[in-house]
Each structure stands twice: as C-alpha cells, then as structure tokens.
Amino acid sequence: MALEPFLGKRIGVLMGGMSAEREVSLRSGRAIAAALERLGYLQVPIDVDTDAAQTLREARIEVAFIALHGRYGEDGAIQGMLEVMQIPYTGSGLLASALGMDKIASHGLFQSHGLPVPDFFVLTEEGQTRFRIDRLPFGFPVVVKPAMEGSSVGVTIVSAAGEIDAALKEAFRYGPRILIERYIPGREVQVGILGGKALGAIEIRSKTTFYDYTAKYVPGMSEHLFPAPLSAEVYKTVLDCGLRAHQALGCSGYSRVDLRVDPEMRPYLLEVNTLPGMTETSLLPEIARGVGIDFDQLVEQILETAGLGK
After folding, report:
1. Who contacts 308 (Cβ-Cβ below 8 Å, separation ≥6)?
2. pTM for the whole structure
3. At 63, is the secondary structure helix, strand, or coil?
4. For the chain, is the Cβ count within 10 Å smaller at the N or the C terminus?
5. HSE-up of 150 (CA within 13 Å, CB side)?
C-alpha cells in the first residue's frame, strides 16, 4: 500500500539532465518511475534541462524524486532550486551534494574526520604548465581524475611518465581542477547506505583495467560478489568507514560509498555517490536485494525520506 503522505501527490521523477551521465540517469529515472507506478503513486517523468524550474511549475510537481547523476543534478544545483521552489526532494541536501560531487573537498573533509583516503595531489589548469611529474609525493601507478565528475568519466590509470600528458588532457576536458591519486592495489568494494545505516558491502571484479564506465554499464564486464568476501572484521571496518564517510558529508536518505581495500586489508575511501545508480541492476539496488529489500521497496523507502532543509 502506498505511503499516506504521498498518496495522490504528483511525484516528479527528475532524470536525464545535462551531465556526461545523462544516459545512465535516464535509465535510473525510468526504473524509478516504473517502480512508483507499480506501487500506486502518481509519477510524472521529467527530463531536466535548463528550463527545469518552468517545467516543474507547469507539471505542478509536489514532490521530486531525483534520479539525476553528475553535474547540475548531483552537485547541489537542482537541490538548491527545489529548496527555493519549496518542493520536497529525495536524497541529500544542497551542501552534502556539493561536497560529495567535489572529490577535492570531500577528500579534505574525510581527512579532517580521520578517515583514510589515498595520497593525492591537486592540479589546476592554470598550474599545469609548472607541473612536474617527478615532484609528485608518490610514485606510479597513479589515478588521474576530474574533481567534479562521476561514473569514472575522464579517469585514467597512469603507469609511466610518458602517459601522463594524455591523462591530464582527458581529465581537464571536464573542468579546471583535477586530482592525481596514488593507485591503491587490491579490491574494489562499495557500501550501500540507506536510512542512516550501512546495508552491506559488495565487491566488484572488473574485466577492464579498472572499474571504468564500460565495466559499470556494459553487461558482463564486471562480476559482483555480495556480500563482499572479506573477513568479518574487515567487512565491519568497511561498513563503518562507509557510514562515517556518509555522515562526514552530512548526507541524507541514501548513498553509495566507493572504497579500495589494499592487500593488507586496509580500506581507502574514493568517493561518496549521493545519487547512486538506480537501475534494477545497479549496485545499491543489488546490495539492498541482498539484505531482503527488493527494488520497489528500496524506491519507496527513499521516497519516504523526501524533505526540505536537509
């Protein structure tokens, strides 16, 4: 039975958007809209563009279920607009969304909370001409990534000095600030957070060099192991690390936290996804399903957290 506070309300499912993750967002949005329909809610799909405020007003949306990924959707921009319009929305608030999207800001915040992150170096487009790879405080391999993108867009693993220029050029396509991280060998583990609790951790084994855009979204290009095959002690440490990262950013509702676990079983935080993928085969739904929460139940539990002033 549909939740009383949302019965008969026009729930706008915001999807698409203008980021490099538009196609993934459309898939998340369609899956969420279908779940809301099955659950008996009045859902209104909204393809977000620069006229989003006018579109929402004309559609007479009363609640927004945000299925956007990347810039202008996951970075606090749309959350700020919904606050001004006084439309309750799912997911984290403006500040937590902005911090989660900005890997440089979030790394600094994690460090201030005593949480482990890979050694990193910040490079701006302006400072690029003075940059010398031999002055990095750590050796190869390194991970070069844009400060403000998701889904591994613009990310390159660099194993030798001769590869660095192409990696910098690729990362700077997505913004004037980038991050160069020490590569953490070991395992890719992700933690799902829902309702202030860590649901579980899943391990990803990619068939590409790393868990890149292809491995994430092309069927068969990665293997998912749930629960992650870690010792009970390490599993608990990983869950705690993920939940503390979610809390450090001030996130609300739900998130997915990405980590690396090195061969000595030490976890390192990579990022918090404040609006993780929500297709039926995405990782957060897979983690939820692993603990007995099916996709429709997950969508409804997220809807229940919609609000303002987060």
Report:
1. 82, 83, 86, 87, 88, 89
2. 0.94
3. strand
4. N
5. 31
